[in-house]
Amino acid sequence: MAKKQSELTNGMFSNNPIFVQALGMCPTLATTTSATNGLGMGMATLAVLIMSNIVISLIRKLVPEKIRIPVYIIIIAGFVTMIDLLMHGFLYDLWKTLGLFIPLIVVNCLILGRAESFASQNSVFKSILDALGMGLGFAGGLILLGSVREILGAGTWFGLPLWGDAFNVFIMILPPGAFITLGLLAAMFNWMGISREEKKKKKAKAAKKAGETA
Amino acid sequence: MNVFLIFMSAILVNNFVLQRFLGICPFLGVSKKTDTAVGMSLAVIFVMVLASVITWLLNGVLVLMGLGFLKTIVFILVIASLVQFVEIFLKKVSPGLYEALGIFLPLITTNCAILGLALLNIQNNYGLLETIFNALGAGFGFGLALILFAGIREQLDFADIPKPFKGLAGTLITAGILSMAFVGFSGMIKL
After folding, report:
1. Other CB atoms closer than 10 Å to residue A199's CB: what's the count?
2. Of A131, B70, B76, B79, which residue is the least packed, with the fewest Cβ within 10 Å?
3. B70 CB near a chain A CB, below 8 Å?
4. CA distance A207 to A24
5. Quick one: how far is CA A27 from the chain centroid?
6. Who's near A75: CB < 8 A, 6+ residues apart?
7. Which phi and psi (to 5°) does residue B166 adopt?
8. Backbone torsions φ then ψ of B188, nearest 5 degrees
């Protein structure tokens, strides 16, 4: 059970696709002008990732080694087209704001990366867990980034007014804001990682010292 | 005149990397040295123009057959095989050029800028000539951003950056500042 859990949490935290692996940067930067858009993009990617992981895991023994990448790309492109049409039908406003980046889920390196490195070698159940973890990690990152940008840039969160026009940093919604916010968030996670490691080292040192005196 | 406007707008106002966020992966990945940045830019310009023309023609066929919704699948396959084909072709015909561009070509398949450009051309209802100039502009814009960025990163190697900002974080913030410069062009051309 512990192993299963690690497959799920692996993608969410320790191997987060956005902050640790830096995969799928284009949609990350482009669609996070608000928390809602980030959530929409995250869910669309999650859906494609789960479905493509299931199918690729199911046919993993049938696909010849040499043509596996084109096969994966066709499968992913098929699901992306489905999501594109579904969103066009049922979520027209979101479809319009995300625009080009829905068909571009095809070239999101995260999805092809998981297909190649996980789903093509593991059972269906494990692949679903992996897709859930990675997809939720990706969506979480998008929502976090979208929230920061929306709160600072427009003074709202998921469209709810927080402080309205009292404090707006307009640049956060423009393209440079995306780069800078993501850079600062990545630096923050780095800093947290570094300080945690230093604490560990200090503890180890203290333990060693205690051992020596004892 | 319109064609020239499309070209300039794709380079500066709607720069593919810094304003539209297409092709961020190679932008962050291949921008450590100016030489490689130049090689990558040339390869991208070449493939962009070729891919745009072919996908534009193919879209005509798809629309005629009433299969417009299949364009994402068709385009990505065309681009992937086109890149392979260009690689083999260059190897045979011009080994010098292949040596210069060869290692970048496989990377281009997963470059969302190529597929994005192909889809944008269709979305904007461009004619063939406009498509070619849009592709040229997008390619040069990508090259401009990439080479500028590589120049900055070469200088940054000697700078003393705080530890948490090393790597991805610092790179992203630098890109943000460069992007700010390009925001200055916004609104200059209205199409």
Report:
1. 10
2. B70
3. yes
4. 42
5. 10
6. A52, A55, A56, A115
7. -70, 150
8. -70, -35
Pairwise CA distance, residues B36 & B30, whole Å? 7
Distance CA A158, CA A34 (A): 7
pLDDT mean across residues, chain B: 85
* Span A86-122, pLDDT tens digits: 999 999 998 988 888 898 888 888 888 888 888 888 8
What is the complex's ipTM, to 2 decimals?
0.84
Place of tokens 């023309």: B53
Question: Choosing among B30, B115, B168, which should be mutated to test the A contact, i.e. which has the most A CBs within 10 A?
Answer: B168
- Confidence (pLDDT) at A1: 41
Q: In the numeric block, which tokens belong to residue A195?
A: 């300080």
Q: Please give, rounded to a whole number of angstroms, the shortest distance from the CA of B75 to a CA of chain A.
A: 10
Can you tell me the distance from the alpha carbon of B112 to that of B110, in angstroms, rounded to the nearest whole number? Answer: 6
CB contact under 8 A, B172 and A182: yes
Residue A158 contacts residue A35 (beta carbons within 8 Å):
yes
3 state SS for chain A:
CHHHHHHHHHHHHHCCCCCCCCCCHHHHHHCCCCHHHHHHHHHHHHHHHHHHHHHHHHCCCCCCHHHHHHHHHHHHHHHHHHHHHHHHHHCHHHHHHHHHHCHHHHHCHHHHHHHHHHHCCCCHHHHHHHHHHHHHHHHHHHHHHHHHHHHHHHCEECCEECCCCCCCCHHHCCHHHHHHHHHHHHHHHHHHHHHHHHHHHHHHHHHHHHHHHC
Q: Which residue has the tokens 């980046």?
A: A101
B69 and A180 in contact by Cβ < 8 A? no
B21 DSSP 8-state letter: -
Query: Does residue B43 contact residue B146 with C-beta atoms inside 8 Å?
Result: no
Question: Is B180 in contact with A106 (Cβ distance < 8 A)?
Answer: no
Return the closest-CA partner of residue B187 out of B2, B12, B1.
B12
Instruction: Give the distance from CA B87 to its chain's centroid.
Output: 18
Yes or no: say if B22 and B146 are a contact pair by the CB < 8 Å rule.
no
Amino acid at A178: A
Question: pLDDT digits over B51-93, tens only?
Answer: 999 999 999 999 888 888 888 889 888 888 888 888 888 788 8
B20 touching chain A per CB within 8 A: yes
Q: Which residues of chain B have pLDDT under 50?
A: none
